[in-house]
Amino acid sequence: MVDRVIKIGERFGVPTALLAVGLWFLHSACVSIHSTLLVPIVKSHVEFLESTSQTLHEIDQTQQQQATILGEISLGQRAIQSALSGDPKTGGLESWQ
Asked: I want to staple 88 with a disulfide (CB 3.0 to 4.6 A). Which of 12, 22, 38, 82 is the partner?
């Protein structure tokens, strides 16, 4: 590596050789940051998104069950109101007033 820098310095000048060394250190730093910082952050973010997706799917199923149960309760309440009022059209609202 040092021989290459010296050859670059002799051929293109010292500023170019220093720039090459600086870029090499920058490259090494970027590779190090990628493997130690970015990869774990992305991995944890993907896990978070997967758990959020799973939770939203469970919430969707629960809401569908609730909607079905509320529909059944509504039908039962209408049947009770009709039975109490004796008139299926009014739904028993007049008897409560």
From this structure: 82
